[in-house]
Specification:
The protein has 762 residues and is of the alpha/beta class. 47% of the residues lie in helices and 17% in strands.
Length: 762
């Protein structure tokens, strides 16, 4: 196996030092972002996602479907909006709905009929119907109780005359007075009844819409406008919770279901996105699967029509439905994360994926793209776009204050907000980025990816750019410079980043304490990362490791604490690698129990990137050789080879703080390109220790606070840096240790046998 370095290897490491020069050369077309032109084509404002942009153009041409799969922040929502822009500029007059959707009464009280009509024609139809009903209502006789009142009046007058006659006769015959009283009471009752009829007549005549109340059955026959295309400006409907009521529509609940008050079904109907929106954007398919709407969506995608139904349950409208179907020829734009794809494969044997592939495309969004001249150009364009967007936000938030009161008022109000005085020359106007500041943004994007790539998760970068602009504004700088970006990076932290800062302070004190009380035998500084769930950024942190080898025990490896399966397997690989050396040098067999401890890693450890550090710790304890505690190491050990690991850039950044007292690190040879972003806007130099090449980064300016990074191919190279001994010395001292342990064990066994042997009788 060829593990030695050659001339090409050294040339490659020296070539890394040219990365800042090459990067600046790729940005030579501008001095600051004010010189950058933003593309007029809106779809070209989305950077990196070339495959997705091509797919958007193709489905816009053939009106197909698209499924975008990727992590949050990669531009899925922006591309959905770009599809709307492309179609509105190309096929708007053909794809936009041009007919109103009307609902008519159906064959019975639970059915409606749906019709499509020209909006102007529908307006005239409804106006004519209402006018005819109003005319019919105006010709309806006025409410009157005259006939009943006249009858009561005649009877009342007869009773009054009878009363008078009986009173006159009572003067002769007193018994007639009793009849006069009864007749008088009857006339009084009829008088009251007559007044009651007159009051009732007046009340009925004074009620509003009194005539129309008798025409309710005719008003209920007027069709209802379910959708008017003139009132809809967007082609795209964004659906956050895709259930049947939002996507298809239904019938509203009727609280008045008795007497003459109930609302007819066609006036309670409403439509969903399928019937009204040419483009439906489903932001998260996981929600659609959880709600269980997938079977209905598949049927509508296949048939391009559906029947409006009231839905399940026993409430009002549950039994309502349309007699004829609604049109539903939609373009489906759907998004999901990587973890949802497996559920889509299982749901109906991948029926949804099959529908998408039949009529459109499935696109995997790039979470990282190779750094090329084109992606560098797009990154500079992206910074310019964000600067313009910040300018628009300033105008939206402060435009009225600025136009009415001037910049001095804006300054005073900002002083109140921030609680400190601002300079007299303060101006709340956006700042363009200098070329070096753009390089800092590119550097950060490189740090958040790996293997010479730029991160495609741009949403967190937006916040960094905005914070950088604010730093330039409050320092009265004419442009955003690298120091503003660095301050923004310190302040604009994710949740995991804030946690990492706190852990980093603790790890710093822990490392200093261990260095002060130990002889550094068996103690190694490994490197770990914490991944941010939202931004995808990794945050490095030092990981102190202790290894101990005990002779005469069980031949096994013990890793204490909360350790994952991969990390445990890595420890087993280290044990196998050490046993391989012992077998190669012909050392006598001695059972060695190897103990590994991730010092105060209370959150647990997973992954194999610490296997190189574990190997150094165990070898250090095995041969009793102190470890250089000023250097850290990361890498995946396979046999003797050190393989690449993730997050190397962030791991190194976590120990480059001079206050931590670290002088450098050993990294896998394959991770050499992950060092490039650390060289931007820094003084650097090539160095070599023996045959091992490296790069020196000056953290404090010209020739101050050097930090050395060595690129190791095998663990023997790591031993030279961390233990300061070569391969022959390691093998010789391991053989010596095995012989000593073997002799001790043999002597111990002979002593035990002598003690256990039966004594002869005297």
């Amino acid at each position: 196996m060829k593990t030695d370095y050659n001339d090409n290897d050294y040339a490659w490491i020296k070539e890394l030092l040219q990365y800042p020069v090459v990067l600046k050369e790729r940005l030579r077309h501008f001095e600051d972002t004010s010189e950058i032109q933003v593309p007029e084509d809106p779809i070209e404002c989305v950077i990196f996602q070339e495959r997705a942009k091509k797919a958007i153009r193709k489905i816009a041409h053939k009106r197909g479907h698209i499924l975008m799969v990727g992590r949050p922040g990669t531009g899925k929502s922006m591309l959905a909006g770009m599809l709307q822009n492309v179609l509105s500029q190309s096929l708007d007059d053909y794809i936009r709905p041009c007919e109103s959707i009307l609902a008519y009464p159906g064959k019975d009280r639970n059915h409606i009929r749906v019709a499509y009509e020209d909006p102007e024609t529908a307006d005239r139809l409804l106006e004519d119907l209402r006018a005819n009903i109003d005319a019919a209502a105006s010709t309806t006789p006025v409410f009157s109780l005259d006939e009943q009142i006249r009858t009561l009046r005649r009877v009342k007058l007869g009773l009054m005359l009878t009363t008078i006659g009986l009173v006159a006769g009572g003067l002769v015959y007193p018994l007639l007075l009793a009849g006069a009283g009864v007749a008088a009471i009857g006339s009084i009752f009829l008088f009251l009844q007559e007044n009651n009829h007159r009051a009732q007549e007046r009340i009925q005549r004074n009620q509003p819409h009194a005539a129309g109340a008798n025409m309710k059955h005719l008003y209920d026959m007027i069709p209802s406008v379910l959708h008017d295309p003139r009132q809809q400006s967007d082609l795209l409907a964004r659906i956050a919770e895709p259930n049947a009521r939002v996507m298809k529509g239904g019938f509203r609940h009727d609280p008045y279901q008795s007497g003459n008050l109930q609302t007819v079904p066609h006036q309670r109907a409403y439509l969903g996105a399928h019937a009204t929106a040419p483009i439906i954007y489903i932001d998260e398919l996981r929600t659609l699967l959880r709600i269980g709407y997938m079977p209905e969506l598949l049927e509508i995608m296949q048939e391009k029509q559906y029947v409006l139904e009231g839905g399940q349950g026993a409430g009002s409208g549950a039994a309502d439905r349309s007699e004829n179907p609604l049109k539903a020829d939609n373009i489906i734009v759907a998004c999901c994360n990587n973890d949802t794809i497996q559920r889509l494969r299982e749901e109906g044997d991948g029926a949804f994926l099959s529908r998408i592939e039949d009529k459109g495309e499935i696109v995997y969004m790039e979470s990282a793209v190779p750094e090329t001249p084109e992606t560098i150009r797009q990154t500079a364009q992206y910074v310019k776009q964000e600067v313009d967007r910040i300018a628009d936000e300033f105008q939206t938030a402060w435009g009225d204050v600025l136009s009415n009161e001037g910049m001095e008022s804006v300054r005073q109000r900002c002083e109140t907000i921030f609680g400190r005085r601002l300079s007299p020359g303060f101006s709340l106007t956006t700042r363009d980025f200098s070329r070096d500041a753009v390089m800092e943004i590119i550097r950060e994007m490189r740090c958040r990816a790996a293997d010479g790539k730029l991160t495609g998760i741009l949403r967190p970068i937006n916040g960094i750019i905005k914070s950088s602009v604010f730093e330039a504004i409050f320092s009265d700088a004419p442009r955003v410079e690298p120091e503003h970006v660095r301050v923004a990076l310190q302040e604009h932290l994710s949740l995991e980043g804030a946690m990492q800062q706190e852990i980093g302070r603790y790890k710093k004190d822990l490392k200093k304490y261990i260095d002060s009380i130990t002889d550094s035998i068996g103690y190694v500084v490994g490197l770990a990362v914490i991944a941010s769930t939202a931004s995808g950024q990794m945050h490095g942190q030092p990981l102190p490791i202790h290894g101990q080898v005990d002779a005469g025990g069980a031949d096994r490896v013990v890793a204490a604490g909360k350790i994952g399966d991969i990390a445990l397997a890595a420890a087993q690989n280290v044990r196998a690698s050490i046993r391989r050396i012992l077998k190669k040098i012909g050392a006598p067999y001695v059972g060695y129990e190897m103990h590994i401890e991730y010092i105060q890693a209370h959150g647990g450890v997973e992954g194999d990137s610490a296997s190189a550090a574990i190997d150094v710790a165990l070898i250090s304890d095995f041969i009793r050789q102190p470890v250089n505690a000023k250097f850290a190491v990361t890498g995946s050990l396979t046999g003797d080879i050190i393989l690449a690991v993730g997050g190397v850039t962030e791991k190194l950044r976590s120990i480059m703080d001079p206050s931590l007292g670290m002088y450098g690190a050993c990294v896998p040879w394959q991770n050499k390109h992950d060092i490039e972003p650390l060289l931007v806007n820094c003084h650097t130099a090539y160095l070599q220790k023996g045959a091992i090449p490296g790069i020196r980064i000056y953290r404090g300016g010209q020739d101050q606070d050097p930090f050395d990074v060595f690129f190791c191919k095998t663990k023997w190279h790591v031993y030279q840096i961390m233990l300061d001994i070569d391969r022959d010395q390691v093998e010789r001292r391991m053989a010596d240790r095995c012989r000593r342990d073997s002799d001790v064990i043999k002597r111990s066994d002979r002593s035990w046998r002598r003690l256990a042997a039966p004594k002869d009788d005297a």
